[in-house]
Amino acid sequence: MELVVWNAARRLAVLVSGALALLGAAVAYDRRLGVLSGATAGLALALLLVALVPLLRASQFLRTMTVPPKTPAPSMVYRANPTAGDTDERDRVERSATHQSAVAFLLLALAGSLAVVAAAAR
User: Fold this and answer.
1) Measured between alpha carbons, how far is 118 from 34 in angstroms, rounded to an integer?
2) Is residue 74 part of a domain?
3) Average of pLDDT values for 45-69?
4) What was the pLDDT predicted at 82?
5) Tell me: the pLDDT tens digits for 86-100?
6) Distance (Å) of CA 85 to CA 53, 70, 97
7) pLDDT band at residue 106 under the 50/70/90 scheme
8) How many domains would you assign to the chain?
């Protein structure tokens, strides 16, 4: 689940940055920027930059999840469950990654809607 939310947020970040780049190119071509268009585009850019922080934190959490669990000592192979102590830690990391990705997705959705408003106001 955490990978699905993270991938969706990452793809939305690419879409929002592309939309803002196209809006910036249109403004540079016309050399005209209205008050509403400038304010909403600036707010969308600020939200995009703020959303990158939880997105990067989620990717760090996901990287720590790819580390293989510790193997038990050779003398305890048949007596110990190698994943018994790691499941709580893994669940906590998964929840943190999902939470950070969801926060980034929310901020990016808001930035995308503001980019649409900025383009429409232009």
Assistant:
1) 9
2) no
3) 86
4) 56
5) 667 778 888 888 889
6) 30, 10, 19
7) very high
8) 1
